[in-house]
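Note to self: user wants both folds in one dump. Writing first protein now.
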Amino acid sequence: MGQTVRRRKGGIGIALVTGVLVVGASACGGGGSDKASGDDAKASVKPSASASPKPTKPAGPPMLLDTITPQTGTTVGVAMPISVIFTNPVAAKARATVEKHMKVSASQPVAGAWHWMGDRRADWRPKTYWPSGTTVKIDADMKGVSNGNGRYGVHGYTHTFKIGDDVRADVSVTNHTMKVTRNGQTVRTLSINAGSAEYPTWNGTMAVIDKQEKVHMTSCSVGISCDKGSPNYYDLTLPWDVHLTQSGTYVHYSTGDPNPGSGSARGSHGCVHLSMSDAKWFYGQVKQGDPVTITGSPRAKAPADNGYADFNLGWDQWLAGSASGEQTTATL
C-alpha cells in the first residue's frame, strides 16, 4: 500500500535542497550569485558499503524519500512540477531505473520528463503547462530499487493532485505593471515596482511556492546587510506575501513603497511590490504552482532549482538532465 510523504511544518521540500532562508526570517534577495545556494550536487554523504542485492531482501540501508510535492489532495497551478527529494544522493548510474519506478499518470495525457537538480532532487514537468482540470497521480514504487550508492527502497509512495484554473501573472519591470489572467481572460492589470539597479529582480517564470498572510523579512537573512546603520538594512513583518524563489523573492506589500508604479519608480531589494489593496487581492487569486513571469529586468532568469522555476529551462535543456527521456503520462 502506498505511503504519502508529509509536508514538513514551516517549509516545503525544496527548502531542504537550497537551504537559503534563515529559519523564522526571509527577505527579498536581490544580490548575490545567479545560482541557487546550497547546491545539493555538492553533497558529500558517503554511501554505506553493501553486499550485492538479492531479489527478495536487498542488502544495505534503506533509500527513502524526504518529500513529494505537491501534497496529495491539493489543487495547484498549471506550472507546478512534481518535485521528489531523496534523503540520500542518487548515483547517476541508478537514475534511469529510479525514474522508471516513479510513474506519472494523468486524466489528460501529456508529454513530460524527469530532470535531476543535483543528486537528491528530481522534478517531473510537462513539456508545456498542464491543462486545467487535469488529475495527476505519481506512484513512486521504490521497493527494492537501488540508489546506486548501496541503499535500496523499502516503500511505495502515492500522491494524487489536481490542476486548477489557469491563473498567470505577467510582470513588466519597465512598464511597472502586472497583468493577471484567468483561463486566458485578463482579470486585472496592477501597478508594481520591481528591484532596483543594485538589487534587480529575477527574470523568467517562477511557479508560486506558497503564500503567507505575514512574513518576517530581514536584510541580514539574505546577505544584503546585517548593519543596522546601513540604508539597505531592514527588519520588517509585511503582509500578503506570495513566495516565488527560495532565495527570497516575493510579490507583496511593502511599507517602504506603499504606492508602487511608474510615478514612484522606487526599486525594491528584488521583490515585486504591490499596493496594500492590490497585494491582498492578488494573494486571494493565486495558488501554489501558478506561473509568475517577469520580463524587463537586467538580471538573468532564476535558476530552475531556485524554487519551482522549472520552465526557465528550454525543453532540450530539460531533457539533458533526464536519465530516461521524454515520456507520455499513463491515462488515469
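First done. Writing the second protein, which came from a different request thread.
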Amino acid sequence: MVAAASVVVAVGTATGLLSALDDGRGGGADEARPEVTSSPLLAPLPAVTSASSTPSVSKSPSPSARTTKAKKPSRTPSPAATEPGPEAKQAPAAVSARLYRYPDSQVLDWVGTHRDDPRRPVIEAEIADRPAAVWFADFTPSTIASRVRAVTSGAAGAGRVPVLVPYAVPDRDCGGASEGGAPDLDAYDGWIDAFAAGLGSDEVIVILEPDSIAQSDCLSTGQRADRFASLARAGRALKAADPNARVYYDAGHSGWNTPAKQAALLRQAGAASAASSDGVFSNVSNFHRTDDEIGYDRQVLDALGGPAGLGAVIDTSRNGNGAPADGEWCDPDGRKLGRAPTTNTGEARIDAYLWVKLPGESDGCKGTPGTFTASYAYDLAR
C-alpha cells in the first residue's frame, strides 16, 4: 500500500487560518486577534509494500508549514476512489451547535471583502459559516499561551467547543514541504506546557501533531523513541492542564500504515493511556472517504487496546468524492466538501467529523500554499 505523509504549508502567522468554527467571540484577555497559522498542506511519501488489506491510496496534504516547496505527488492508483461512492451523494449532516467557529479566518476575510462576488453566497454558506480547526504551527514560546487562550476563551464565552492543532514537533514532515517546528524536544516540551496553559478549563478538542506518528520512519530508532516519549508527555500535560480537554493522536489514514502497525506506533506514543489520550484522528487534509476511515479507525482502536472509551475523529473537510484515482494530492480537481463538522456521528467509537483542513486553503497548485483560494473553495462547495 502507499504510505503518504501529510505535508502542511503554513504561511507564517497568517491571521485567517486554520480555523473557522461556529459563531462566537474570538478575543481573549491577552489579545483579541491571536496570530495563528494557516492550515497545512500534505504530500505523499514514496510507495511501500505492506501486507495490509486496506485499499491502497496515496496520502495528501495536511497542516501548516513554513516553506513553499512541495514533494512530487504519488501517482499510484487508488482503487477505492475511482468512482464517487454513495457518500458523494449524501447531504452533509447538520453542523453540531457545540463546535466553535473562530471568527478570524482567511475565508471570513474573503467573504467580508467580496460581498458582490457571485461565488460569495455559496462559499459563505457552505464553508465560512461552518466550524473548522485552528492551527498553531510556528514555534513562538513567548506568545503561544495567550494565543491559545484567545481562542479557548472565545469558545467558552460562546458555549462552544474549539478544535486546536498544535504543530511544532521537531523534524516535522521529515524535512519536507512542512518542515519546521521546535529546535529540539526539550524546547518542544516547554512549548507544549505553554500551549496547555492557554487551554482554560472548558471542553476543547486537540489534534496533536498531524503526521508525527504515521510519518516517523525517517527517524532513527532512538529519535523515534524520544519523539514518542515527548508526545506521550504532551498528552499528559494537555489533559492535566484542562481535565476537559480531549486529546487525539495521529493515526495517518486508511491508505497508509496497516491498522496493526499504526496501533503499535500509537501505543509507544502514549495513545492507549487515559492519562494522555482520548483516541486517534485520521485523514487530516486528505481525501479518503469517511466510510473507509471509520472502518480503518475502528481496526486501529481494536489493535491499540487501552480504555474502552477511546474513540476517533475524522477530517471530512474535502473527502466528499474520495481520493483521486491517480493519487494526486495537491488541490486535485473533482473533489468536494465532505460531511459537515459535528460531534453527533451516530457511529460507534467515532467521536466527531471535523474540518481540520480549512476547505479552500490551497495546497500550492491552485494558489499560494496555505492561502485561501476562492476558485478552489467554490469548486469544492458547489
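Dump finished. Worth passing along: The longest helix spans residues 221-241.
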